[in-house]
UniProtKB/TrEMBL annotation:
Domain called Phosphatidylglycerol lysyltransferase C-terminal: residue spans: 495-796
Protein name: Phosphatidylglycerol lysyltransferase domain-containing protein
Domain of life per record: Bacteria
Membrane topology: Multi-pass membrane protein
Subcellular localization(s) per the UniProt record: Cell membrane
Keyword annotations: Cell membrane, Membrane, Transmembrane, Transmembrane helix
Transmembrane feature ranges: 7-36, 56-83, 95-120, 126-147, 159-177, 183-201, 213-233, 282-300, 309-331, 351-375, 387-408, 448-470
Cross-referenced PANTHER family: PHOSPHATIDYLGLYCEROL LYSYLTRANSFERASE (PTHR34697)
Pfam families for the chain: LPG_synthase_C (PF09924)
Length: 835
């Protein structure tokens, strides 16, 4: 009891307006229950007719009552989940102002939309005209949208897209005045947010990562799938898209009633209507009619995961819906009055209401085509062969059961079926009933057993299909050549590589293997340049041979060989065979044997360790694929927020992201507090020598924007201490592209002899590094790593033909930023100029 009281006191102190409104709304709800809810609702509900009667107070009072017990339950949850936290974040004064303005202006805008609706849909417009709106969720939605203006990029975008998708779906399908007013309040909040609470310090950047783009597309597809379900399950849905309820709704007839009607006249429209309603009525047919939408929800999960198959299947589904909708339109308005429509019995069959169904799949199809590049994740080889085999097996198994069951219970049909009749009828049992409305049923079930067989065979098949599709999405994703990648990983783990060699296992690489299979080179071909990822992997005494053999392999294929981010040993080899080369970065190495964070040089590091101890933050090792969902969700959110705030796509090639962290061989060290809140994360890749791990290389670094500030210093220092205890020889803090320790120093003017292609490219990369610094901060990163007093190892790029340097420079740029759009390129240039 004491704990409950303390929570109430905390809520009142932190969010007095929210708690006050909660008490007021609940109090008015009790009063309405005493005097009769209908009476108060008539006086205080919003609507066009109440406004015409000059009940102007309804603009505000409509937000002080809820429609029914469920409405009050939703309101209470919304206050504690959304309203109170937002009030504590933006302040009570701004919260109150936001609530009043979004409720009032949202009501006015919603009524305006209701008044205009009759111009393009008389039926919906009439229902909005006579309808009323009441509910406190209007101003709650409004303040959420207002507060989103001040949120970090990731959550601002997710909340806006998710909430607007939900509200638009509700308005178009359910279509009541309250749905329209709630959407209007969200729009008002979206517009007023920057004025009331200001903009986020991170600015209005909308560029995001590939992963976040997938999430947003998946949200839209899921909303498009849920819309028809919402209309179907809401018998009073009146929105312009509510016509889609005819896909799954119907007035049930019994088989006996239908046969009696059809016995009098087989051509009677009521006979046909009865036959069709038998297919649409009942639990089984209703669920079967919903299964395509449920499958789309599963495909939306595949889109969230970036699966290429999910994209293709979703495109196919939208094309089918589009074709069916256009066919329906043609039947109604080209063939002039033929009632044999896919959407049989369409209420108010105007051209507008018939054209509406294909607007939705068309819009989703356009979105999928425009975002095709986001969905490039493929399943391992053979996954979809196995999937096809399972689907075929399910079809055969269910077909056999249907035929045998039909023969056993043949007396339970109104007309006794034959074996061939059951075989011919089986495919129809798998198709959602609405798509069978042009076909006359061969026989109808009369008993419980045959009804179950007739109605649920298709449901079982679609359920199995959904689970099988989900299973393909849960299989580990594969690279361009998963067999070669696994072979390369095996060689690396049993041999020797450089500090960057684990990057050779990343997606996007192709592989050259030595004749004896003991060595390999990871490379990618871009614009005719074979660009490697680090040194050749394999025995170090075979290094020279591997360099030369790979160069010959590339030349035989017409490619320009270029070794990128390689060690001085490879540079020495290529220099000896007449190649050119330049330094492109600096690797920072911590030798752990004698490491001790003592002395003035390590003051910042010791401060981070001491502060973490005081505030209860600890370093904890995890592996991302095995970590609890509560941890991985936080890591994903931290990463997406960090990348979204850059306003540019996440770089690749030698810079890893979440996809590279999701590897069972990669270790992650997280800074986590007593409440299991993740404040930062670093990932560490293994370094092998003769098949043993002798070091770990830092790759992924992310920190919560409002979390423990020195999280990175704490995590790197903790990793050094913990790995030293494990007997690890060294840590590589990796390199920073386009950054060197002597960047800050002025270089002397080169002589004429030095003005070679290599020297010019070196100068060009230097200028590019300085130019990109405001956006990606490579030089700041190198300066940060200097806190740990590392040993510096140069990283080089070597090439056979200096004349090919323009092509090589283009290949490197495209390797790091393969998906930069024209708009992102423009923002990049603008950011560099501004800063």
């Amino acid at each position: 009891m004491v704990r409950l009281w303390s929570l109430i006191v905390f809520g009142v102190k932190g969010a007095p307006v929210s708690i006050g409104l909660l008490i007021l709304v609940l109090g008015l709800g009790i009063l309405a229950l005493v005097v009769g809810g209908g009476t108060l609702h008539r006086e205080f509900a919003l609507g066009i007719m109440p406004i015409e009667e000059l009940r102007l107070w309804t603009v505000l009072t409509a937000g002080l009552f809820a429609p029914g017990v469920l409405g009050y339950v939703v309101f209470v949850l919304a206050v504690f989940v959304a309203a109170a936290p937002i009030e504590r974040r933006i302040g009570s004064a701004k919260f109150a102002l936001s609530a009043v303005l979004t409720q009032a202006l949202g009501a006015v805008l919603g009524l305006g939309i209701a008044a205009l609706a009759k111009l393009f849909d008389a039926d919906w417009g009439f229902r909005l005209h006579v309808g009323t709106a009441i509910g406190p969720t209007t101003w709650i939605v409004g303040v959420v949208m207002v507060a989103s203006a001040r949120m970090d990029t990731l959550w601002r975008r997710r909340i806006r897209v998710g909430l607007l998708a939900l509200l638009i779906t509700s308005a178009l399908f359910s279509g009541h005045l309250q749905d329209v007013v709630r959407l209007a309040a969200a729009v008002v909040g979206l517009l007023l947010g920057p004025t009331i609470v200001g903009r986020s310090a991170r600015g209005p950047r909308l560029a995001g990562t590939q992963r976040e783009g997938r999430v947003l597309v998946a949200l839209v597809v899921a909303a498009s799938a849920l819309g028809p379900v919402l209309a179907a399950l809401s018998p009073d849905a009146v929105g312009p898209f509510a016509v889609l309820r005819d896909v799954v709704s119907g007035v049930p007839y019994t088989a006996a009633e239908v046969r009696e009607i059809c016995a009098d006249s087989a051509t009677d429209p009521e006979c046909r209507t009865g036959l069709l309603e038998l297919r649409l009525g009942g639990v089984g047919p209703t669920i079967l009619s919903l299964m395509p939408s449920i499958l789309l929800l599963f495909l939306a999960d595949g889109l969230r995961r970036g699966r290429r198959f999910a994209w293709g299947a979703t495109v196919f589904a939208q094309v089918v819906l589009l074709i069916v909708s256009i066919a329906n339109y043609a039947i109604r308005f080209i063939e002039a009055g033929d009632d044999e429509s896919v959407f049989y019995g369409l209420e108010s069959p105007t051209a507008y209401r018939t054209i509406v169904p294909f607007l939705l799949p068309l819009a989703v199809l356009v979105l999928l085509v425009l975002t095709r590049k986001y969905f490039d994740v493929t399943a391992p080889r053979g996954t979809y062969r196995k999937f096809s085999a399972y689907v075929a097996g399910s079809l055969v198994g269910l077909g056999v059961l249907y035929v045998l069951g039909g023969l056993v219970g043949r007396a339970g049909f109104d007309e006794e079926p034959t074996v061939l009749g059951l075989v011919a009828d089986f495919p129809q049992r798998l198709i959602p009933p609405v798509y069978l409305q042009w076909l006359e049923p061969r026989f109808l079930p009369d008993s419980i057993f045959t009804t179950l067989l007739f109605e649920w065979t298709g449901v079982i098949f679609w359920a199995a299909l959904c689970l099988l599709v989900l299973g393909t999405f849960l299989t580990p994703n594969a690279g361009t050549d998963s067999d070669a990648a696994e072979r390369a990983r095996s060689v690396l783990m049993s041999s020797t590589g450089s500090a960057l060699s684990w990057m050779t296992t990343w997606k996007g690489n192709s592989y050259w293997f030595s004749a004896d299979g003991s060595s390999f080179v990871a490379y990618r071909v871009i614009s005719g340049v074979a660009l490697t990822t680090g040194d050749p992997v394999g025995p170090r005494d075979r290094l020279r041979e591997n360099v030369v053999d790979f160069a010959e392999f590339a030349s035989e294929n017409g490619w320009i060989p270029c070794f990128y981010s390689v060690t001085p040993q490879v540079r020495d080899i290529t220099d000896s065979i007449g190649w050119g080369g330049i330094q492109v970065g600096e690797e920072t190495v911590l030798d752990l044997e004698n490491l001790a964070f003592t002395g003035k040089r390590f003051q910042d590091v010791r401060t981070a360790l001491n502060r973490a101890k005081k505030v209860g933050i600890e370093a904890e090792w995890i592996k991302f694929p095995d970590a609890p969902l509560a941890i991985t969700d936080q890591i994903t959110a931290i990463s997406e927020e960090w990348v979204a705030d850059k306003g540019m796509p996440e770089m690749g090639f030698t810079l890893g992201g979440l996809e590279e962290v999701d590897d069972p061989q990669v270790r992650c060290l997280v800074a986590i507090d007593e409440h299991r809140t993740v404040h930062g994360i670093t990932s560490w890749m293994p370094v092998y020598e003769d098949g043993e791990i002798v070091g770990w290389t830092l790759d992924f670094m992310r920190r919560r924007s409002e979390g423990f500030r020195p999280a990175m210093e704490f995590l790197i220092a903790s990793a050094a201490i913990l790995l030293k205890d494990e007997g690890i020889r060294f840590l590589s803090l990796s390199g920073a592209p386009l950054a060197k320790v002597d960047d800050s120093g002025a270089e002397s003017d080169p002589t004429e002899e030095e003005l070679t292609f290599s020297r010019l490219l070196d100068r060009l990369l230097d200028v590019l590094g300085k130019t990109l610094e405001p956006v990606y901060g490579f030089r700041s990163l190198l300066a940060f790593k200097s806190k740990f007093q590392p040993r510096y190892e140069p990283m080089h790029m070597t090439f056979a033909d200096p004349a090919a340097l323009p092509s090589i420079g283009n290949a490197i740029g495209r390797a790091y930023l393969p998906d930069v759009s024209i708009g992102q390129g423009y923002r990049l240039v603008r950011t560099m100029i501004e800063r």
